[in-house]
Amino acid sequence: MNPPYLLFDVGGTDIKSALSDEAGNLLGIRRVPTRRGTPDPAASLIDQLHGLGSDLMAQSPLLVPQAVGLLVCGIVDEDAGLGVFSANLGWRDAPLREMASKAFALPVGFGHDVSTAGAAELRFGAGAALGTKVRNAVVLVIGTGIAAALFVDGHAVSAGGYAGELGHAAVPVGFDCPCGAHGCLETIGSAGAIAKRYTQASGRSVDGAREVLEAMETGDPVAARIWNEAVEAIAFSIAQLCSSIAPEAVIIGGGLAQAGEALLEPLRRSLRNKLSYHREPLIVPARLGQDAGLRGAYLKAAEAREVHP
Ligand SMILES: [Zn+2]
User: Fold this and answer.
1) 86: which residues sit within 8 A by CB, 6+ positions away?
2) What's the 185 CA to ligand 1 centre distance in angstroms?
3) What pLDDT score was predicted for residue 160?
4) Are residues 100 and 156 in the same domain?
5) Are residues 184 and 297 part of one domain?
6) How far is the CA of 253 from the centre of ligand 1 (A)?
7) pLDDT tens readout for residues 184-219
8) Can you tell me the distance from the alpha carbon of 173 to that of 167, in angstroms, rounded to the nearest whole number?
9) Of the candidates 64, 69, 23, 36, which has an alpha carbon nearest to the alpha carbon of residue 302?
10) What is the domain count for the chain?
């Protein structure tokens, strides 16, 4: 049994919030747009979280939260409690953990959205489903962009918030990236890139990578080429990881993972072709879906309460 916690998962476009009960159920899950374009984005975020927290507590007056779990996007220094930088939301070196702790008068467990959601995926989701304790793993989130959570010998690798930026590591056939570098995996392997490149190559505008997959399944050679190039690029990046941190499992989440075996099967094949003596990781889909972040916030809240009894 755990006490109730207030949980927030702050992304560039929206905030998910929930209150957990003693059994760890997530109550009142809600998603609202993140307030943007204010002069003090950090203060504005905390104010918005306070409002969401008050709503949750009013809905379940018998549950008295004992800690807060707060995840944010961007570059995050978990140890220092800082939102170092968010391109989407605009803060720099914002002491978000301390600000939230003051606003709620509670201990706050603070973390990066992708890395903490990855930890939850490993503990409660795909990692748990593998049955054996996986100590070396990568959770690869492929959506509009690509981000990763890395776990080595049972520990999350943070490096002051700079680890796991797999989407901005170059691959052989990458393109110019908005980040300023050339060849980033994101420019060819993300769901966003698949849709954009298909539209450029075919002249047919599509809503997302799902439509490219559908076109490929009806025999469209342009769609097949672009899908395969994305798979090759992702496999290249995973192969690099196999020789650097040697994961036992690679868990694929994010929008593109909805393609299921249409993505995973060719990915396994392409990866196998690139490896020799390396340990070949299992490639499996994520299982927690949209709630992975809130589950991660739950882990952080529980840690915070242990640190500040
Ligand atoms: Zn880049």
Assistant:
1) 12, 41, 72, 73, 74, 75
2) 7
3) 86
4) no
5) no
6) 20
7) 999 999 999 999 999 999 999 999 999 999 999 999
8) 13
9) 69
10) 2
